[in-house]
Amino acid sequence: MSEKKKSAYAEAGVDIDVMMGSLQNIKADVKSTNTDGVVSEIGSFGGLFKSPGADSLLVSSVDGVGTKLKVANMANVHTTVGQDLVNHCVNDILVQGARPLFFLDYLGTAALAPQVFEDVVSGFCKACRENGAALLGGETAEMPGLYPNGEYDLVGTIVGTVERDKLITGETIKKGDVLIGLPSTGLQTNGYSLARKVIFETAGKKLDDLVPGTDRTFQDTLLAIHKSYLNEVMPVLEKVDVHGMAHITGGGLYDNVPRVLPKNVDAQFDRSTWETPAIYKFIEEQGNVDHEEMYRVFNMGIGYVLIVAAADVEETNSILKSNDQDALVVGEIVEGSGKSVLIN
Prior knowledge:
alpha+beta
């Protein structure tokens, strides 16, 4: 019996049969993320979700994982970047007090590699389950000639909800408030273009080399999953009047915290209050990167910041620690003009 003739579209680089087979393989995993609000099945033209109600606001955000994908490709490890993307998006809306409802993804590639696709989606599903969000739908686009062969891009959109009277805007932040820093799990999803250049080109390191001063490889360090702070921070929001929060992504402490500051105060961080992880010291020294620039490119060990009244610090830290979240008092709010000021 003769082999099935390859379609003209497949000859051009897009095999619909491969795509449809992979979509069938992920259906059960995606369905495992369903929450009470989901009222549609995967494969519909649009995902359906129940409205959270008239007294609630919808909060949305869209983001990617940048050139961390290059490291995933180097290591041939694709189960973590989906988790990175979901968690990053969850943190972005958490700063306004929002809990996620659902997540949508985009994966663009030259030609679909079924196992890579399924590994990435498994990461989406794992993180969605952990954050109580539904993977409501997505788009997988094969575009030979636009993307390099063997590589792919990821983008995620999240939609969450917060009650109107519980929205956190930062406008109540005042002089004397305290900055509480939650440690990051690594580079998270920012600064990878500089990190890759320094580590693999300038320093000539390999993925399985150990980061100096640690017992972890560069692969494990660079692919460490971007942490979601949702399950640790939400219990704080239920009991403490949090004045403001910031997710420390691209722009670091310098650019992210001012996004929630009133114009009459500054956030003064004392860098002596936390230990800078070894990976950043390596990048700074090997790449001859200016010390202040490091705090603008990377999170430098602080992944999330809460701003609370001084009287609420003890309770805030107690709640965080009861949920296995380390917390550090890393600074205070002082008079100023809406900037981050880093000292020591």
